[in-house]
Amino acid sequence: MKNFYIGSLLTLASVFLIARLTEPRPLWQKVGLVLLLIALAAGAWWVITETA
Known about the structure:
The chain is mainly α. It is built from 2 helices and no strands. It has helices at 2-21, 27-51. Helix 1 (2-21) packs antiparallel against helix 2 (27-51). The radius of gyration is 12 Å and the shape is elongated. Keywords: Membrane, Transmembrane, Transmembrane helix.
């Protein structure tokens, strides 16, 4: 059950990052946010598949 909560938190963080990407920012910041988003998505996918 703990992994489910971790996965939920990672998913919420991903949604927050997507919202931040829509703001006007320099390109290098958007690239960094996209890389962080990919890492969070991979972490959330790993947690969800480990609990299944």
